[in-house]
Amino acid sequence: MPPQTSTSPTPENQQSLLEKHRWLVFVLPMAVYMLIGSIEPSPSEPGGKMLRLAIPYSAYPLAYTAKIALTLVAIALVLPGYRQFRRQPGLLTVFVGAVGIVVWIGFWYLSNLMGLTQLLTQLLGYGSRPEFNPLKELDATPVWAWTFLAIRFFGLVVVVPVIEEFFLRGFLMRMVVDQDWWKVPFGKVTAAAVAVSIVVPILSHQPGEFLAAAAWFGMVTWLMVRTRNPWDCVIAHAVTNLLLGIYVVTWQQWVLW
User: Fold this and answer.
1) Is the whole model's pTM more than 0.70, yes or no?
2) Is there a domain that residue 154 lies in?
């Protein structure tokens, strides 16, 4: 019998693919995350309407868990591409992340006090966040409730900072600087790139978080220019998200995630 050959990609083939299609490293995980996220249900409507599905709100934990699992697969596929960035993050990044939670919560409260949240929501017609409280919605199955809370924190603190920062700063901002974006040193920016680093996150968040997103992402863009290290941006994002998650659970502000 002829020897059987493996159809799974070898590390050499994987590296070759990533070198040929450099954008995959930065875009693929984010694309998977957004694609699966688009079918998640919310309190006001079922998920997957574009695909003629009707995913109930009670299935949100399964939909979110599937999103994180598939995004991790995408990260694993492009992981060799992350090795081009080998610098260790500095202590400044932790400080920026800690200040970031004050900035985020502060501007969120300000938007609510000024009535901007309600006004912009009505004008723009944004959908709501899932606002899923596993300790309430899954109280009949405490083990699953706490397991999903852990999964939610893992997605918030580990997965999102990596995929969002690498997409925004590793690809999108560099592409604005030059068509041959992979030749642009990380941390080199133009006025257009700075604008993109603020406008794109604003549009991807809820109206009540527009001011917070503008201030927070602008601050991390400053960190990017100062240190020229993507892992500083990732860690700062992770620190802020960790503190945000703790705030949400402690103060029952599920509207923020």
Assistant:
1) yes
2) yes
